[in-house]
Amino acid sequence: MSKIMDRLEEIVPRAVAGDRTALEEVLVLIQPPVRRYCAARIGNLDVVADDVVQDVCLALVTAVPKYRDMGKPFMAFVYGIAAHKLADAGRRSALRQTFSMDEMPEEQSPDAGPEQLALGGELRRHTQALMETLPEKHREIILMRVVWGLTAPQTGERLGMTAGAVRVAQHRAMNMLRAELANFSLLAARAAA
Questions:
Q1: For residue 93, with 0-12 CB atoms within 10 Å meaning exposed, 13-18 middle and 19 or more buried, which class applies?
Q2: How far is the C-alpha of 82 from the C-alpha of 57, rounded, in Å?
């Protein structure tokens, strides 16, 4: 990994300056560590690490010219993009459901019927709208901690935060969600009266 880091230190400034060959080399060099990073963090998602790596590479093509050295290794910048792309993939995976009916069943299914599916869709829409009231960092923390079941240290590693900072941010995010739900309940009660 140190060879990659050393080489990146040499070529990233050239890639930032617009050297296409240097940018191509950056993309080649970051793929193996990003693939390992993504594979280790995908867990039980219905996502392929290579798909996320491809998304990271595409994002880097537009992000590298805007990159500014802030004293951290370039790979920290890359892992930040990878964390965002993993979060995006997780959201897409959670929303994607496939239903196939090759044959009509003879008996009534104990599975959810159309009404339950419609209510579930409505609940997902309301949940998504509620989550969108949070700042992006808080949404990511709630997604990683509550939906994906990651620990505070795992979440912190992905987001470049300490485990304690993740816990504090999660606590604040949950309080924001509670307040937003209370406001919604109050508005609903007034509308019903």
A1: middle
A2: 9
Give the residue among 85, 74, 99 at the shortest CA–CA distance from 52: 85
Locus of tokens 């990271």: 56
Q: How far apart are CA 67 and CA 30, in angstroms?
A: 15
Q: What is the DSSP secondary structure assignment for residue 145, as one 8-state letter? A: I
Q: Which residues contact 87 (CB under 8 A, 6 or more apart)?
A: 140, 143, 144
Hey, is 1 helix, strand or coil? coil
Q: Give the type of residue at 139.
A: R
Confidence class for position 99, pLDDT limits 50, 70, 90: very low
In which residue are the tokens 């990073």 written?
37
How far is 143 from 155, CA to CA, in rounded Å?
Answer: 10
The residue type found at 90 is: G
Distance of alpha carbon 165 from alpha carbon 162, whole angstroms: 5
Reported confidence tier of residue 113, pLDDT bands at 50, 70, 90: low
pTM above 0.85, yes or no: no
Give the mean model confidence (pLDDT) for residues 120-125: 72
